[in-house]
Design a protein that fits this description.
Largest interface: A-B, 22 and 27 residues
Structural class of chain B: mainly alpha
Shape of chain A: globular
CATH architecture of chain A: 2-Layer Sandwich
Radius of gyration of chain A: 11 Å
Number of strands of chain A: 4
Structural class of chain A: alpha+beta
Order of helices and strands of chain B: HHHHEHHHEHHHHHHHHH
CATH class of chain A: Alpha Beta
Strand content of chain B: under 5%
Order of helices and strands of chain A: EHEHEE
Strand order of the largest sheet of chain A: 1-2-4-3
Number of domains of chain B: 1
Number of helices of chain B: 16
Helix content of chain B: 55-70%
CATH topology of chain A: Translation Initiation Factor IF3
Largest sheet of chain A: 4 strands, mixed
Shape of chain B: globular
Oligomer: heterodimer
Chain lengths: 71, 363
């Protein structure tokens, strides 16, 4: 099962902090982050790409699932 | 639409936003707003508190259309780009008091982070202590964030909930327009307008409102935030927001030079004092409170406009805080710090540390 971080409902900068921790914890691999604001989606995407992770964004209603992968 | 959306998310987008805010702020001063106060979210909310009679400092009472414009501009942007997301419930009472003490700190310094940058870009050296204090306060906030500080999750809410603060702003706009017909031409209430002092200085209503709408729109799109700029550098060496903030200072600096509004020095700067200890101390408190609440006062307005009820509560905390700041002699004036300003800063810091230490999850 893919690791998952639920950052829905959290205000800035919590979603980014949680995603960043997971990136550093895993080092590489795949995990997903659930967010419900565009700001969180943009911030996590920007940070992840800077740190060398690929980001796939899936829209689920008014929420997003970001799938982060690093080979 | 997608191209526009993408543009606002780029480095160019945030730099353009900062530049536009800087230029428009300097122009607002030229068109009538107070000295080095083309835009100041804290001061303008304080003026609104005064206009509503929440404090009786007669020189700082006016319903500032820029604040109303910020919220509606953000609301329009949020609807246009399908980002209006009504949400609330993340420790609202804590956010109220963070707003309250953020205002206390800002009024000891005499300005929000936006005004600190505008003051610096107009040559006011006293802003340096304020900006250092702001950075220190945010750094303390980051330390709390790294140790698991978190106010909990907000919940989705009704669309009408997201409209409460915008509707209240609509009421303020009506008061602004109708006040001259109420009571003694705004002299004896129920709405008070300053006849002298900074509160009596303002650009034409329509100009202020339109500029407020424009800034609210682009700042909502780009997530412009002065606190976030410093926080992101400390927390993750990310300079995205900081590039916008620097652009604001640069845009204002160049416009001030062109308009003859640049006067370098420490003494006799408009609506400023030279007590550097409390210029710094006030902004340590403000910076920490902004960091714990997740946004500078401008950003809280834009969040409130996109449906964030918790940000709306922070805004109300700031407005009520401004009432207390003047009624309790906490606010500074060009003569110096208020009688109880330093004590209030210490109490505010104690509150923020209480919040920061006790409200955290293990991470």
């Amino acid at each position: 099962m893919t690791d998952s971080v639920d950052a829905r409902g959290l205000s800035c900068p919590q979603p980014v902090i949680l995603a960043r921790q997971k990136m550093h914890w895993l080092g590489r691999g795949t995990f997903e982050v659930k967010v419900d604001t565009d700001t969180a989606r943009e911030n996590i995407t920007r940070l992840a790409q800077k740190e060398g992770w690929d980001v796939e964004i899936k829209e689920a209603g008014r929420e997003y699932v970001l799938v982060l992968t690093k080979g | 639409m997608d191209k526009i959306k993408a543009f606002f998310g780029t480095r160019v987008g945030i730099v353009a936003t900062g530049t536009v805010i800087g230029i428009l702020a300097a122009l607002l001063q030229k068109m009538g707003n107070p000295g080095n106060m083309g835009i100041c979210v804290a001061c303008f909310e304080r003026d609104i508190a005064g206009a509503l009679g929440l404090h009786r400092a007669a020189v700082v009472q006016y319903i500032r259309p820029e604040i109303i414009g910020f919220i509606f501009g953000a609301l329009i942007a949020a609807y246009a780009f399908k980002e209006f997301r009504p949400r609330a419930g993340s420790a609202p009472i804590v956010r109220f008091f963070l707003g309250f003490f953020a205002m206390t700190g800002a009024l000891v310094f005499l300005g929000c982070p936006w005004r600190a940058l505008l003051r610096l870009s107009a040559g006011d050296g006293n802003a340096i202590a304020g900006l250092i204090g702001l950075t220190v306060g945010i750094a303390i906030g980051v330390a709390f964030l790294k140790n698991g500080y978190n106010l909990g999750r907000a919940q989705k809410s009704y669309v009408s909930m997201g409209w409460i603060l915008p509707l209240a702003m609509g009421a303020l706009l009506m008061f602004l327009l109708l006040a001259p017909q109420m009571g003694d031409n705004g002299q004896s209430g129920p709405i008070f307008f300053s006849v002298k002092g900074p509160g009596a200085l303002h650009a034409p209503v329509a100009v202020s409102l339109l500029i407020g709408l424009l800034i609210g729109f682009i700042a909502q799109r780009t997530r412009f935030c002065t606190m976030g700029a410093v926080r992101d550098i400390i927390l993750m060496r990310d300079f995205h927001l900081a590039s916008g903030v620097l652009a604001l200072a640069a845009g204002a600096f160049i416009t001030n030079l062109i308009l003859g509004q640049f006067h370098a020095g420490f003494e006799n700067q408009p609506i400023a004092h030279t007590n550097q200890l409390w210029n710094l101390g006030g902004m340590v408190l403000a910076g920490l409170a902004f960091a714990l609440a997740g946004g500078c006062p401008g950003r809280q307005l834009f969040l409130a406009g996109e449906g964030d009820g918790d940000a709306g509560v922070f805004v109300l905390g700031m407005i009520i805080g401004a009432g207390f700041a003047h009624n309790f002699s906490l606010a500074s004036s060009p003569k110096g710090v208020g009688l109880y300003g330093p004590l209030a800063v210490l109490i505010g810091l104690a509150f923020c540390f209480f919040v920061g230490f006790t409200m955290r999850e293990k991470i």
